[in-house]
# Entry
Amino acid sequence: MEVRHDWTVEEVHALFDKPFMDLIFEAQQVHRHHHEPNKVQVSTLLSIKTGACPEDCKYCPQSAHYRTDVDRERLLEVERVLDAAEKAKTSGATRFCMGAAWKNPKTRDMPYLLEMVRGVKSMGLETCMTLGMITGDQATELASAGLDYYNHNLDTSPEFYGNIITTRTYQDRLDTLSHVRDAGMKICSGGIIGMGESSRDRAGLLVELANLPTHPESVPINMLVKVKGTPLETAEDVDPFDFVRIIAVARIIMPNSAVRLSAGREDMNEQMQTLCFMAGANSVFYGCKLLTTPNPGEDKDMQLFVKLGINRTEQAAKPDEIQAEELLGQVAERVAARPTKDDLFYDASL
# Structure
């Protein structure tokens, strides 16, 4: 199957218009051709500096422009970050992502960030950071310290972008991605669905990502988490089938990329997430929080993985039957340690 970098909005929009079953079938075929079926990569995300961000992204509770319940916190101490990374590894994460609410990191911050990268890398975890815009020199420093991935989302189409953000241009975002790629790091870049954009804007976002010189190694697809105090707190809910469609189209036009279910999973029931996996999603963020927004707990994800026969990538060498027994045993131990009525069955729609 050909990997293309010359998609048009019209072509991608035509994929969105396909009958649902046909689209999912095509996406699953592409997925199985380029990836191992029933394998999901697991990442954990930690906010290393929270709140007081000078950017005006209308979806973000960390923006200093809006009054939300997010507390301002300074850059975390290196030791606290490394302790969180160790816990994430124990819980089954293979990649540890660190996010800071900045427009861009300052020179004084770089030594601490580099130490975090080296420390996490020494644990055998893949490393990822999202720090806002970075220069070419900063990208080189991070790469030299061992940073594997840099996350910088495009968020939406170029045409709709100005409705969401005014403090940073679309070209600024593309320039940062270029610095990351030039430094030899992998790119994690995707967008957010549910900010009032049209289906054509959704197609436009995917076209921008797919037509980069090299496809992002990781494409996070976020469903808007509506936070009180932000301008998008009353945005319309995303239709679940529309969300599954964008996962499927991302898989078809970026066949080698990991397509990640990111923010918004707390509002997805098991059936919706299952359709996303069928449509080609093969990466998730793991843990009870994504920066400042909720996320399904590890036990709930583990139970769903067992139901679906999904094996986390770091356990792929073991037979499925042993996998299931071990995972069920881990779930039983955790549930016994802290039983609540919600531990056994997960319905995120409640």
